[in-house]
Design brief:
The protein is of the alpha/beta class. About 30% of the residues lie in helices and about 20% in strands. The protein has one domain: Alpha/Beta hydrolase fold, catalytic domain (Rossmann fold). The chain is globular and about 50 Å long.
């Protein structure tokens, strides 16, 4: 956690949802900085030690901070200060959908002491939302992507790290989805990811030598995400 991170709890579907909010460093020097968007990051399986503080989830959030996004990392049900018990992805989807709606309301940020002074909060309802998930989080994320599209509020883009292909029932994802996988992933074999991605003609970015948790390879995740955004238009105050 750093000076631009705040841990809060909000009321969710079955009780409290604990989450970490990570702000771009640019806000430190320029309170008038207009953030580029919002990023919702889903962590790995809660029954296998997954939390919002997972290093991969944090790396994804920090990468989007560098790109000018405000990142939110909620704890799934039964983890940390989040109420409820593990629900095999069903309740977790409902919670992520709830958080995504919460993120898009101006009063959410205007009534928070960490963010109330920033001008970007006035236009948060119009900011794009990125969804990202690691392992089990990518499974829940794939369902969230469809739910948001069905509601007429599609995500800007989806990022899957350590995709849960072959382990949980992923839904088809948009063609521009960023898929990052470790060559030596022992939890979700790379072959399973290729089998799932092949019919959709998705591109997989493989990190050589990386295991499921990307030990000593976290910087590769950050670099891939940053590289994917380099060709996109700059956010307003970057000219």
């Amino acid at each position: 956690m750093n000076s631009r991170t705040q841990v809060i709890s909000i009321e969710g579907v079955v009780g409290s949802i604990e989450m970490a909010i990570d702000l771009p460093d640019s806000l430190k020097s320029d309170p008038s900085f207009m953030v580029r968007g919002l990023a919702l990051v889903a962590h790995p399986h809660p029954l296998l030690g997954g939390t919002m503080d997972n290093k991969v989830a944090q790396t994804i959030a920090r990468a989007f901070n560098q790109l000018g996004y405000v990142s939110v990392r909620p704890n799934f049900r039964g983890v940390g200060g989040t109420a409820g018990v593990h629900d095999e992805g069903v309740g977790e989807l409902a919670d992520l959908l709830h958080v995504s709606e919460w993120m898009r309301h101006p009063h959410t940020w205007m009534n928070n002491e960490l963010t109330e002074q920033y001008i970007w909060t006035n236009s948060v309802a119009n900011l794009p939302l990125v969804v990202a998930g690691f392992s089990f989080g990518s499974f829940v994320g794939s369902h969230l992507i469809k739910a948001l599209a069905d509601l007429g509020r599609p995500a800007e883009r989806f990022v899957m790290v350590g995709s849960a292909a072959g382990k949980w029932e992923l839904l088809d994802v948009p063609k521009d989805t960023i898929m990052i996988h470790g060559e030596l992933d022992e939890t979700i074999p790379l072959a399973n990811v290729f089998d799932w991605a092949r019919p959709q003609e998705l591109t997989i970015q493989v990190v050589p030598g990386a295991d499921h948790f990307f030990h000593r390879k976290l910087h590769c995740i950050r670099n891939i995400i940053l590289g994917e955004w380099l060709g996109q238009p700059a956010w307003p105050n970057q000219g």
